[in-house]
Amino acid sequence: MLSLLGAPLAARAGAQVEEPLADSIRSALSASIAQSAPPRVRFEADQVEARMAYLRWLGVMSERLKKRKTETQIRIEFLETVWYEAKRAGLEPSLVLGLIQVESGFRKYAISVAGARGYMQVMPFWTRVIGDGDASRLFHMQTNLRFGCVILRHYLDVERGNLSLALGRYNGSRGRPEYPNAVFGARRQWLLPGEM
Q1: Is position 106 within any domain?
Q2: Which of 6, 11, 63, 117 has the fewest CB atoms within 10 Å, counting from its CB?
Q3: Burial of 172 (0-12, 13-18, 19+ CB in 10 A)
């Protein structure tokens, strides 16, 4: 992502605040991060329609992402992982793609002024709170996407399903509409035709 002067733009992450977590929540989040299921999507033989819908989504999203990720294999692996981690966390893949677009501009090694890292701009304190403490792993695609999706799901649960408040909390701007509105606007670009 470049500014008008051609210089790279900073990642957009806000000043997300480390909040105390109950031991039960910390344990549940840690278990969710630790599960090492493969990001490959698997369908049973009787799930033909679901498989076809997924393949259609993958094809459309791959075409839309082509300008930002030109290498086909990297682009497909990224989209497969986004879909897998979003669905695993009970989130819409289009929402996760919109958040990534706003947070990092699809840059794997983005670092914000606040220190958030990677595609989903995860704050390093999360690796200490629910991970193994190695913040450098936030530059690993699946790790970053898993942390980001699990954290967003946690905030969505904390905010009792209010997506605007959950997005604000994710960004450290809870209660202000600019960030959620930016994510909602970006999300529209990642919806399939007819999903509005």
Answers
A1: yes
A2: 6
A3: middle
